[in-house]
Amino acid sequence: MAGSEEKTEKPTPKRKKQARKDGQVPRTPELGGWLGLLVVSLAMGPLLDHELGALRTMMATSLRSAADPSISLALTLLGDAARHAFLTLLVLGSMMLVVGVVSALAQGGFYLSPKLVKPDPKKLDPIKGAKRLFGPHAAWEGVKVLGKSTVVGLLAWGAVKSMMPLVGGLLPIGVVLHQVTAEVSHLLLTVAVAGLVMAAADYAMMRRRIGKQLRMSHSEIKQEHKQSEGDPLVKGAIRARQLAAARNRMIADVATADVLLVNPTHVAVALRYDPEQGAPRVVARGAGAIAARIREVAAEERVPLVQDVPLARALYRHCQVGQEIPRELWAAVAQVLAFVLSRRHAGQHGGEHRTPRRTDELPEVLAHSRRRRAVEGA
Known about the structure:
Elements: H1 13-21, H2 30-64, H3 71-106, H4 114-117, H5 126-134, H6 136-163, H7 173-213, H8 218-229, H9 232-253, E1 259-262, E2 267-272, E3 281-287, H10 289-300, E4 305-307, H11 309-318, H12 330-345, E5 352-354
Parallel strand pairs: 1-4, 4-5
Antiparallel strand pairs: 1-2, 2-3
Protein backbone atom coordinates (compact mmCIF):
# COMPACT_ATOMS: atom_id res chain seq x y z
CA MET A 1 0.00 0.00 0.00
CA ALA A 2 1.17 3.55 -0.75
CA GLY A 3 0.16 4.73 2.74
CA SER A 4 2.46 2.21 4.47
CA GLU A 5 5.35 2.59 2.04
CA GLU A 6 8.39 4.32 3.45
CA LYS A 7 8.81 7.89 2.23
CA THR A 8 12.46 8.30 1.31
CA GLU A 9 12.36 10.36 -1.91
CA LYS A 10 12.80 14.11 -2.14
CA PRO A 11 9.61 16.07 -2.91
CA THR A 12 8.92 16.92 -6.53
CA PRO A 13 8.48 20.56 -7.68
CA LYS A 14 4.73 19.99 -7.89
CA ARG A 15 4.65 18.74 -4.29
CA LYS A 16 6.67 21.76 -3.13
CA LYS A 17 4.34 24.13 -4.96
CA GLN A 18 1.28 22.52 -3.39
CA ALA A 19 2.94 22.62 0.05
CA ARG A 20 3.54 26.35 -0.40
CA LYS A 21 -0.15 26.84 -1.20
CA ASP A 22 -1.02 24.88 1.95
CA GLY A 23 1.31 27.01 4.09
CA GLN A 24 3.96 24.33 4.62
CA VAL A 25 6.91 26.69 4.29
CA PRO A 26 9.97 26.67 6.58
CA ARG A 27 9.65 29.95 8.42
CA THR A 28 10.57 31.25 11.88
CA PRO A 29 8.78 34.31 13.26
CA GLU A 30 11.76 35.11 15.45
CA LEU A 31 14.00 36.23 12.59
CA GLY A 32 12.09 39.47 12.07
CA GLY A 33 12.06 40.26 15.80
CA TRP A 34 15.78 39.70 16.29
CA LEU A 35 16.63 41.64 13.13
CA GLY A 36 14.46 44.50 14.39
CA LEU A 37 16.27 44.48 17.73
CA LEU A 38 19.61 44.54 15.90
CA VAL A 39 18.57 47.55 13.85
CA VAL A 40 17.29 49.37 16.97
CA SER A 41 20.53 48.66 18.81
CA LEU A 42 22.55 50.13 15.94
CA ALA A 43 20.31 53.17 15.53
CA MET A 44 19.64 53.89 19.20
CA GLY A 45 22.99 55.56 19.87
CA PRO A 46 22.79 58.22 17.12
CA LEU A 47 19.06 58.75 17.73
CA LEU A 48 19.48 59.24 21.49
CA ASP A 49 22.40 61.61 20.99
CA HIS A 50 20.35 63.68 18.55
CA GLU A 51 17.24 63.71 20.73
CA LEU A 52 19.18 64.50 23.92
CA GLY A 53 20.74 67.48 22.17
CA ALA A 54 17.30 68.64 21.05
CA LEU A 55 15.95 68.10 24.59
CA ARG A 56 18.72 70.20 26.13
CA THR A 57 17.97 72.99 23.65
CA MET A 58 14.26 72.85 24.48
CA MET A 59 14.93 72.90 28.24
CA ALA A 60 17.23 75.90 27.89
CA THR A 61 14.60 77.72 25.82
CA SER A 62 11.93 76.88 28.40
CA LEU A 63 14.04 78.25 31.24
CA ARG A 64 14.81 81.46 29.35
CA SER A 65 11.14 81.99 28.55
CA ALA A 66 10.13 81.65 32.21
CA ALA A 67 10.88 85.36 32.70
CA ASP A 68 8.36 86.33 30.00
CA PRO A 69 6.00 83.36 29.38
CA SER A 70 3.53 83.38 26.47
CA ILE A 71 1.06 81.00 24.89
CA SER A 72 2.68 81.23 21.45
CA LEU A 73 6.09 80.25 22.82
CA ALA A 74 4.58 77.34 24.73
CA LEU A 75 2.83 76.12 21.57
CA THR A 76 6.09 76.44 19.63
CA LEU A 77 7.95 74.33 22.20
CA LEU A 78 5.14 71.78 22.23
CA GLY A 79 5.20 71.57 18.41
CA ASP A 80 8.97 71.05 18.40
CA ALA A 81 8.65 68.26 20.96
CA ALA A 82 5.88 66.57 18.93
CA ARG A 83 7.89 66.89 15.71
CA HIS A 84 10.96 65.29 17.29
CA ALA A 85 8.89 62.44 18.74
CA PHE A 86 7.13 61.87 15.41
CA LEU A 87 10.39 61.81 13.44
CA THR A 88 11.92 59.35 15.91
CA LEU A 89 8.92 57.04 15.69
CA LEU A 90 8.86 57.40 11.89
CA VAL A 91 12.52 56.40 11.59
CA LEU A 92 12.12 53.42 13.92
CA GLY A 93 8.86 52.35 12.23
CA SER A 94 10.40 52.54 8.75
CA MET A 95 13.35 50.48 9.92
CA MET A 96 11.08 47.84 11.38
CA LEU A 97 9.01 47.77 8.16
CA VAL A 98 12.11 47.23 6.04
CA VAL A 99 13.33 44.56 8.46
CA GLY A 100 9.98 42.76 8.27
CA VAL A 101 10.06 42.73 4.45
CA VAL A 102 13.68 41.56 4.34
CA SER A 103 13.06 38.77 6.85
CA ALA A 104 10.01 37.58 4.87
CA LEU A 105 11.94 37.60 1.60
CA ALA A 106 14.84 35.75 3.20
CA GLN A 107 12.48 32.93 4.21
CA GLY A 108 10.85 32.34 0.84
CA GLY A 109 8.90 35.53 0.19
CA PHE A 110 5.28 36.38 0.87
CA TYR A 111 2.49 33.86 0.48
CA LEU A 112 -1.19 33.66 1.33
CA SER A 113 -2.58 30.30 2.31
CA PRO A 114 -6.39 30.24 2.70
CA LYS A 115 -6.10 26.66 3.96
CA LEU A 116 -4.46 27.85 7.19
CA VAL A 117 -7.46 30.01 8.15
CA LYS A 118 -10.08 27.55 6.89
CA PRO A 119 -11.87 25.71 9.73
CA ASP A 120 -10.61 22.15 9.98
CA PRO A 121 -12.31 19.64 12.32
CA LYS A 122 -9.10 17.60 12.38
CA LYS A 123 -7.46 20.35 14.43
CA LEU A 124 -9.88 19.53 17.25
CA ASP A 125 -8.67 15.94 17.47
CA PRO A 126 -7.44 15.49 21.10
CA ILE A 127 -4.99 12.73 20.16
CA LYS A 128 -3.26 14.90 17.56
CA GLY A 129 -3.38 17.81 20.00
CA ALA A 130 -1.61 15.71 22.63
CA LYS A 131 1.03 14.72 20.08
CA ARG A 132 1.62 18.36 19.27
CA LEU A 133 1.79 19.23 22.96
CA PHE A 134 4.24 16.48 23.93
CA GLY A 135 5.90 15.77 20.59
CA PRO A 136 9.35 16.68 19.28
CA HIS A 137 8.15 20.08 18.06
CA ALA A 138 6.91 21.03 21.52
CA ALA A 139 10.21 19.85 23.04
CA TRP A 140 12.12 22.04 20.59
CA GLU A 141 9.92 25.03 21.45
CA GLY A 142 10.68 24.47 25.14
CA VAL A 143 14.41 24.29 24.45
CA LYS A 144 14.14 27.56 22.49
CA VAL A 145 12.36 29.37 25.33
CA LEU A 146 14.83 28.08 27.90
CA GLY A 147 17.80 29.01 25.71
CA LYS A 148 16.52 32.51 24.98
CA SER A 149 15.78 33.17 28.64
CA THR A 150 19.21 31.93 29.73
CA VAL A 151 21.14 33.92 27.12
CA VAL A 152 19.20 37.16 27.64
CA GLY A 153 19.40 36.81 31.41
CA LEU A 154 23.18 36.28 31.41
CA LEU A 155 23.80 39.17 29.02
CA ALA A 156 21.52 41.49 30.99
CA TRP A 157 23.22 40.56 34.26
CA GLY A 158 26.62 41.33 32.75
CA ALA A 159 25.43 44.73 31.49
CA VAL A 160 23.84 45.69 34.82
CA LYS A 161 26.96 44.58 36.67
CA SER A 162 29.14 46.79 34.46
CA MET A 163 26.87 49.79 35.09
CA MET A 164 26.84 49.44 38.89
CA PRO A 165 29.86 51.80 39.41
CA LEU A 166 27.86 54.57 37.74
CA VAL A 167 25.21 54.47 40.47
CA GLY A 168 26.04 56.85 43.32
CA GLY A 169 25.82 60.33 41.86
CA LEU A 170 29.58 61.00 41.83
CA LEU A 171 29.70 61.49 38.03
CA PRO A 172 28.09 64.28 36.00
CA ILE A 173 24.67 63.43 34.65
CA GLY A 174 25.87 63.87 31.05
CA VAL A 175 28.62 61.30 31.52
CA VAL A 176 26.23 58.89 33.22
CA LEU A 177 23.67 59.19 30.40
CA HIS A 178 26.32 58.72 27.73
CA GLN A 179 27.76 55.65 29.49
CA VAL A 180 24.34 54.13 30.15
CA THR A 181 23.34 54.69 26.52
CA ALA A 182 26.51 52.97 25.33
CA GLU A 183 26.01 50.01 27.68
CA VAL A 184 22.35 49.58 26.73
CA SER A 185 23.20 49.78 23.01
CA HIS A 186 25.93 47.17 23.48
CA LEU A 187 23.54 44.95 25.46
CA LEU A 188 20.86 45.14 22.76
CA LEU A 189 23.43 44.47 20.05
CA THR A 190 24.78 41.42 21.86
CA VAL A 191 21.29 40.07 22.56
CA ALA A 192 20.29 40.66 18.92
CA VAL A 193 23.32 38.76 17.58
CA ALA A 194 22.68 35.87 19.97
CA GLY A 195 19.01 35.90 18.97
CA LEU A 196 19.90 35.76 15.29
CA VAL A 197 22.05 32.71 15.93
CA MET A 198 19.12 31.02 17.69
CA ALA A 199 16.74 32.12 14.90
CA ALA A 200 19.07 30.53 12.31
CA ALA A 201 19.05 27.29 14.30
CA ASP A 202 15.26 27.45 14.53
CA TYR A 203 14.97 28.02 10.77
CA ALA A 204 17.26 25.06 10.09
CA MET A 205 15.12 22.88 12.36
CA MET A 206 11.90 24.07 10.68
CA ARG A 207 13.37 23.42 7.25
CA ARG A 208 14.40 19.92 8.28
CA ARG A 209 10.97 19.18 9.74
CA ILE A 210 9.07 20.49 6.69
CA GLY A 211 11.43 18.61 4.36
CA LYS A 212 10.76 15.41 6.26
CA GLN A 213 7.00 15.96 6.06
CA LEU A 214 7.16 16.54 2.30
CA ARG A 215 9.12 13.38 1.50
CA MET A 216 7.41 11.07 -0.94
CA SER A 217 7.31 7.35 -1.61
CA HIS A 218 8.03 5.72 -4.96
CA SER A 219 4.33 5.03 -5.53
CA GLU A 220 3.39 8.67 -4.81
CA ILE A 221 5.94 9.89 -7.35
CA LYS A 222 4.60 7.44 -9.95
CA GLN A 223 1.03 8.50 -9.23
CA GLU A 224 1.92 12.19 -9.53
CA HIS A 225 3.74 11.57 -12.79
CA LYS A 226 0.73 9.66 -14.09
CA GLN A 227 -1.61 12.52 -13.14
CA SER A 228 0.59 15.21 -14.68
CA GLU A 229 1.63 13.37 -17.82
CA GLY A 230 -1.49 11.28 -18.22
CA ASP A 231 -2.06 7.55 -18.02
CA PRO A 232 0.01 5.86 -20.79
CA LEU A 233 -2.91 3.57 -21.62
CA VAL A 234 -5.29 6.51 -21.96
CA LYS A 235 -2.76 8.50 -23.97
CA GLY A 236 -2.21 5.50 -26.23
CA ALA A 237 -5.95 5.09 -26.77
CA ILE A 238 -6.34 8.79 -27.60
CA ARG A 239 -3.40 8.66 -29.97
CA ALA A 240 -4.85 5.59 -31.66
CA ARG A 241 -8.20 7.35 -32.13
CA GLN A 242 -6.46 10.41 -33.56
CA LEU A 243 -4.50 8.26 -36.01
CA ALA A 244 -7.65 6.41 -36.99
CA ALA A 245 -9.53 9.67 -37.59
CA ALA A 246 -6.62 11.05 -39.67
CA ARG A 247 -6.46 7.80 -41.62
CA ASN A 248 -10.21 7.92 -42.31
CA ARG A 249 -9.94 11.49 -43.57
CA MET A 250 -7.04 10.48 -45.79
CA ILE A 251 -8.98 7.52 -47.21
CA ALA A 252 -11.95 9.81 -47.90
CA ASP A 253 -9.67 12.22 -49.80
CA VAL A 254 -8.72 9.45 -52.24
CA ALA A 255 -11.94 10.26 -54.12
CA THR A 256 -10.54 13.74 -54.94
CA ALA A 257 -7.27 12.37 -56.40
CA ASP A 258 -6.40 12.56 -60.11
CA VAL A 259 -4.19 9.47 -60.11
CA LEU A 260 -3.08 6.66 -57.82
CA LEU A 261 0.50 5.43 -58.20
CA VAL A 262 1.13 1.87 -56.94
CA ASN A 263 4.02 -0.56 -56.51
CA PRO A 264 2.13 -2.78 -57.49
CA THR A 265 0.40 -3.82 -54.22
CA HIS A 266 2.71 -2.82 -51.34
CA VAL A 267 2.74 0.98 -51.76
CA ALA A 268 0.08 3.43 -52.91
CA VAL A 269 0.33 7.23 -53.33
CA ALA A 270 -2.65 9.33 -54.46
CA LEU A 271 -1.94 12.68 -56.15
CA ARG A 272 -4.15 15.65 -56.93
CA TYR A 273 -3.19 18.44 -59.29
CA ASP A 274 -4.68 21.95 -59.05
CA PRO A 275 -2.97 24.54 -61.28
CA GLU A 276 -3.94 27.32 -58.85
CA GLN A 277 -2.05 25.64 -55.97
CA GLY A 278 1.18 24.94 -57.85
CA ALA A 279 2.76 21.50 -57.93
CA PRO A 280 0.74 18.29 -57.44
CA ARG A 281 0.09 17.31 -53.81
CA VAL A 282 -0.15 14.00 -52.01
CA VAL A 283 -3.69 13.44 -50.71
CA ALA A 284 -3.17 9.87 -49.47
CA ARG A 285 -0.32 7.43 -49.01
CA GLY A 286 0.16 4.09 -47.37
CA ALA A 287 1.79 0.70 -47.36
CA GLY A 288 0.50 -2.81 -46.76
CA ALA A 289 -3.10 -2.94 -45.53
CA ILE A 290 -3.52 0.83 -45.84
CA ALA A 291 -2.32 0.69 -49.45
CA ALA A 292 -4.85 -2.06 -50.15
CA ARG A 293 -7.64 0.05 -48.67
CA ILE A 294 -6.56 3.06 -50.76
CA ARG A 295 -6.67 0.87 -53.90
CA GLU A 296 -10.20 -0.29 -53.02
CA VAL A 297 -11.50 3.26 -52.56
CA ALA A 298 -9.75 4.40 -55.75
CA ALA A 299 -11.45 1.59 -57.68
CA GLU A 300 -14.85 2.50 -56.23
CA GLU A 301 -14.37 6.20 -57.08
CA ARG A 302 -12.97 5.42 -60.56
CA VAL A 303 -9.59 7.03 -59.86
CA PRO A 304 -7.02 5.88 -62.48
CA LEU A 305 -4.44 3.48 -61.06
CA VAL A 306 -0.98 3.65 -62.62
CA GLN A 307 1.64 1.04 -61.82
CA ASP A 308 5.04 2.80 -61.56
CA VAL A 309 7.34 1.04 -59.08
CA PRO A 310 10.24 3.54 -58.81
CA LEU A 311 8.03 6.64 -58.85
CA ALA A 312 5.60 5.24 -56.28
CA ARG A 313 8.49 4.29 -53.97
CA ALA A 314 10.16 7.70 -54.35
CA LEU A 315 6.94 9.59 -53.61
CA TYR A 316 6.18 7.38 -50.63
CA ARG A 317 9.70 7.87 -49.26
CA HIS A 318 9.96 11.64 -49.69
CA CYS A 319 6.38 12.97 -49.31
CA GLN A 320 3.77 13.20 -46.57
CA VAL A 321 0.02 13.73 -46.86
CA GLY A 322 -0.77 17.32 -47.85
CA GLN A 323 2.77 17.94 -49.12
CA GLU A 324 3.84 19.01 -52.59
CA ILE A 325 5.96 16.58 -54.55
CA PRO A 326 9.71 17.33 -54.71
CA ARG A 327 10.97 19.45 -57.60
CA GLU A 328 13.15 16.60 -58.89
CA LEU A 329 10.04 14.44 -59.52
CA TRP A 330 7.99 17.07 -61.36
CA ALA A 331 8.92 15.80 -64.83
CA ALA A 332 8.14 12.16 -64.03
CA VAL A 333 4.80 12.99 -62.41
CA ALA A 334 3.95 15.35 -65.27
CA GLN A 335 4.18 12.47 -67.75
CA VAL A 336 1.80 10.36 -65.67
CA LEU A 337 -0.67 13.24 -65.21
CA ALA A 338 -0.58 14.07 -68.92
CA PHE A 339 -1.49 10.47 -69.67
CA VAL A 340 -4.35 10.42 -67.10
CA LEU A 341 -5.77 13.81 -68.13
CA SER A 342 -5.74 12.87 -71.81
CA ARG A 343 -7.83 9.77 -71.03
CA ARG A 344 -10.21 11.89 -68.92
CA HIS A 345 -10.73 14.33 -71.79
CA ALA A 346 -11.54 11.35 -73.97
CA GLY A 347 -14.24 10.33 -71.49
CA GLN A 348 -12.30 7.39 -70.02
CA HIS A 349 -12.18 7.15 -66.18
CA GLY A 350 -10.65 4.70 -63.71
CA GLY A 351 -8.94 1.49 -64.68
CA GLU A 352 -5.46 0.06 -64.11
CA HIS A 353 -2.64 1.13 -66.37
CA ARG A 354 1.09 0.74 -66.80
CA THR A 355 3.21 3.83 -66.52
CA PRO A 356 3.56 5.91 -69.66
CA ARG A 357 7.17 6.68 -68.75
CA ARG A 358 9.73 4.86 -70.87
CA THR A 359 12.52 4.76 -68.26
CA ASP A 360 12.75 3.60 -64.69
CA GLU A 361 15.48 6.06 -63.78
CA LEU A 362 14.61 9.00 -61.53
CA PRO A 363 16.78 11.94 -60.40
CA GLU A 364 17.99 11.92 -56.81
CA VAL A 365 15.77 13.92 -54.46
CA LEU A 366 17.88 16.37 -52.46
CA ALA A 367 17.00 17.04 -48.83
CA HIS A 368 16.85 20.84 -49.19
CA SER A 369 14.35 20.60 -52.06
CA ARG A 370 11.71 18.68 -50.10
CA ARG A 371 8.63 20.74 -49.55
CA ARG A 372 7.26 21.34 -46.08
CA ARG A 373 3.84 20.10 -45.19
CA ALA A 374 1.27 22.38 -46.73
CA VAL A 375 -0.85 24.51 -44.45
CA GLU A 376 -4.43 23.34 -44.38
CA GLY A 377 -6.57 25.53 -46.56
CA ALA A 378 -3.60 27.10 -48.41
